[in-house]
Design brief:
GO terms for molecular function: hydrolase activity. Among the domains are: 98 residues, no CATH class; 89 residues, Sandwich (Immunoglobulin-like). 30% of the residues lie in helices and 21% in strands. The protein has 27 helices and 34 strands. It is globular.
Length: 788
């Protein structure tokens, strides 16, 4: 039986959806309220035995397309389709179903369709329309719940209810069920990670198996190795964005169709782009980037949530990082033009004032968080703006940010509101933002008292490996102790580590951190004294980045660029000086693509990278001229026998792909320092045992630096707990040694008397030290406690 004979248009059900849409437009309090209600019915949804489809397609009105030229296109594979194969040609049956619409909204309900599940691949679909010349055009589903071939290919109809019914953490959610929606508050600390570099396999399924293995070892009281400890003693795991991202600018596409006598054949490629997660196209934000899925099934994200929520001893929370403040320019090819409000430095602004766009964005967020996230981190909240025509200026859309935090989620029958974190550095990108930003613009306007923002030491442009950094930031740390209870703290995250690799080595680098640049950078972002400051002294919620904690590399990773790929690599070239030495480059599995292009040694590549950034600047990025000048270098550069535009682009692609592989934390496991890893693990436990440290400083608490400076920066802090416990910490941040001092007898206020016990010492202090005089040097710290 053909596909056309198996599926049927449900006229009555479709008419009911159109009537409901019409009624909402007529009777809803506002247009936005109507759009919010309508958005719940948009996208491809499976209900019982019906496939229900809704699209917001104002472009059909723009082009004056009549009803008779609009159809729901259904595609069903004839041949076996294997989502774990990298390349395959698959024949599809195609059928067109009629639709009904009200204004810009189009609906179709049909029977006989196949919905995707964990073990079943469902039908693919898109909205299509025919122009007056007989040409066909596709409108893809931006609210799709399964996109096995990315956001620029037809979506798969998916049984989301079945996926939710099979959750392994149902009891976790049931325990939170109340008459009113449960409200998640802050955690004690966060591990931030990038799924593709967090495990050797680089998928969500790999990460789930890692946590399942750790859980089993904890249940059976088995020993944990240093690599295991990297993931332990965190209350929450925050994933860098897992939404579909950009695709290769010039192909190949992951879905390529051809018509022949045998019908429709689709050349399918398993998505394999490398991306750090923030280059989103908005379309597809409700589901999971197929690059991250081992099986191609979105169930993998539910499985990860379940593994974290059922972790023995104490459930770990899952935090999603969502990007709704901009779209890459490729989004113009995935969404209709009504979604956008003009270009910005990242690509495109979104039109938040359009009621339909506003409603769809919020609905995308709701569906994504329903995978089972306990918290949400909002990227670039300062970028949510709209044009105020009366004032002739861009205005921050704080009302939209509030709407994000107000969404009620539902998982396993439990309604809840997640904990919210906003990254907001306004007035960034104004030139004085580092001085004028309060990092409290959102927390001061939101209705909830548990909303957090990224704090000043967590924002991008922090370089803790340059001399005077810590003293120069003392004014910010004074702010942190006074008002930092609702800040995410710590200096290691995906942004700070990336920015650190872009700093010129000619600046005033703190050479006391290490002998080589790699050692300096690694220690700067995994410094035991900075961790002590963050976990034992400062308020807020500490966050660590897995790549920094593992002392693995990190950088700007994106291999989709064609037009500007060479320019991006020229800007990233300086990271070679910070993150790659001769030995690391020589390891056979490192930088294999660049070696195949002729850069056999690090020196070969370094020489090329000395020329490339300079030529990009002086030629104003003229690739033809750059290739010509590189060919004329004497003595000749290593690498390809001949430089041309295609070769330059091949080198740029090789660098991005090689760096992506190089940044995988699994490569760093054999070089982990057990003492450093164990110290960090113990420090996290120390914080978890004292959740009151999150609060702002109270009466009797103080934070200061040792005077006189004498060529060093030494911080000290005293905290008082509600149970009478005191925590005193002294931290040598940078500079010359202190000479022989006894921290407890140095005259710091409030620590007089007896009863102090040494709780923690950084691993660069001998295990035989239990108290008394000591010479503190760069990166040394001590933490004492006593009960009063």
């Amino acid at each position: 039986m053909s596909l056309r004979d198996q599926i049927a248009f449900d006229d009555a059900a479709t008419e009911a959806r159109v009537a409901a849409c019409r009624d909402l437009y007529t009777h809803a309090e506002t247009t936005f309220a109507a759009e919010q209600a309508i958005a719940r019915d948009l996208g491809g949804q499976w209900h019982g035995d019906h496939g229900c489809f809704g699209f917001w397609a104002p472009e059909l009105l723009d082009h004056r397309v009549p009803d008779g030229d609009i159809f729901l296109e259904v595609l069903r594979p004839i041949d076996q389709l294997d989502l774990t194969r990298s390349h395959q040609d698959v024949r599809f049956e195609r059928a067109y179903l009629p639709v009904m619409r009200h204004e810009a909204h189009v609906f179709c309900v049909a029977t006989g369709l196949c919905a995707g599940r964990r073990e079943v691949i469902g039908d693919f679909y898109a909205l299509t329309w025919r122009d007056h010349d007989g040409n066909w055009h596709r409108i893809l589903d931006p609210l799709a719940m399964s996109l096995p071939f990315g956001a620029f290919a037809p979506a798969e109809l998916y049984d989301v209810e079945g996926m939710q019914n099979g959750r392994g953490d149902a009891s976790y959610w049931e325990s939170l069920r109340r008459d009113a929606p449960h409200k998640f508050g802050p955690v004690t600390n966060i591990l931030q990670l990038h799924v593709p570099t967090a495990t050797a396999g680089g998928t969500i399924a790999n990460l789930t198996r890692l946590y399942e293995r750790l859980a089993e070892r904890v249940r059976n009281d088995l020993p944990l190795e240093p690599a295991d400890l990297l993931y332990m003693n965190y209350d929450a795991v925050q994933l860098l964005p897992v939404e579909p991202t950009t695709v290769y600018e010039t192909g190949p596409a992951f879905w390529q169709e051809s018509e022949s006598d045998v019908g429709l054949t689709v050349e399918l490629m398993r998505p394999d782009t490398t991306n750090w997660g923030y280059d989103v196209v908005i379309s597809g934000m409700a589901t999971v980037n197929p690059v991250l899925l081992e099986t191609g099934r979105p169930d993998e994200l539910v499985d990860l949530a379940a593994a974290l929520h059922t972790f023995p001893g104490k459930p770990k929370r899952l935090v999603f990082d969502v990007v709704f403040g901009h779209s890459d320019n490729q989004g113009l090819d995935a969404l209709n033009g009504h979604f956008f409000a003009g270009p910005n430095m990242y690509g495109q602004n979104l039109d938040y004032q359009n009621p339909a766009v506003r409603a769809i964005l919020l609905e995308l967020q709701r569906r994504k968080v329903n995978f089972g996230a306990d918290g949400v981190r909002v990227d670039g909240a300062q970028d949510f703006k709209w044009w105020d025509a009366a004032a002739q200026q861009m205005v921050h859309d704080d009302e939209y940010l509030q709407s994000m935090a107000d969404i009620v989620q539902e998982v396993a029958g439990t309604q809840y509101r997640p904990w919210f974190i906003f990254e907001d550095g306004r007035p960034w990108p104004e030139e004085d933002w580092e001085l004028s930003s309060t990092y409290r613009s959102v927390t001061e306007t939101q209705r909830d008292d548990d909303v957090f923002q990224w704090g000043p030491l967590t924002f991008a442009h922090n370089t803790p490996f340059l001399y005077t950094f810590w003293l120069s930031k003392f004014w910010r740390m004074r702010e942190m102790v006074e008002v930092g209870s609702h800040w995410i703290s710590g200096t290691s995250n995906h942004d700070t580590l990336r920015r650190g690799t872009q700093v010129s080595p000619k600046m005033n680098v703190n050479t006391r951190l290490g002998v080589t640049r790699m050692e300096i950078l690694d220690k700067a972002y995994d410094n035991p004294v900075v961790a002590t400051l963050t976990y034992a002294a400062l308020p807020g919620v500490p966050m660590d980045f897995l790549n920094a904690a593992a002392r693995a590399s990190w950088g700007f990773i994106r291999n989709q660029d064609d037009k500007y790929g060479v320019k991006v690599v020229a800007e990233e070239a300086i990271s070679l000086k910070w993150q790659v030495d001769e030995y690391a480059y020589s390891i056979p599995y490192n930088f294999r693509r660049l070696k195949e292009l002729g850069f056999e040694t690090r020196g070969d590549l370094a020489r090329f990278f000395e020329f490339l950034p300079a030529l990009v600047e002086v030629t104003e990025y003229d690739l033809e001229e750059i290739a010509k000048l590189l060919t004329q270098v004497d003595p000749p550069l290593a690498g390809p026998a001949r430089y041309d535009v295609a070769t330059l682009k091949a080198i740029a692609r090789a660098w991005m792909d090689d760096m992506h592989d190089y940044c995988n934390v699994s490569h760093a496991f054999t070089a982990l320092d057990p003492a450093q890893v164990s110290f960090s693990h113990a420090l996290r436990a120390f914080r978890q045992e004292r959740p009151w440290l999150q609060g702002n400083y109270g009466p009797g608490d103080w934070f200061d630096y040792m005077r006189p400076i004498d060529g060093r920066t030494v911080f000290a802090a005293l905290r008082h707990g509600p149970d009478g416990e005191q925590v005193f910490s002294i931290m040598h941040m940078e500079g010359k040694s202190t000479g022989d001092i006894d921290p407890l007898a140095h005259g710091f206020p409030g620590i007089e008397g007896f009863g102090w016990e040494l709780a923690l010492r950084t691993p660069n202090i001998g295990a035989d030290y239990g108290g008394g005089p000591i010479v503190l040097k760069d990166s040394m710290a001590l933490v004492y406690t006593r009960k009063r």
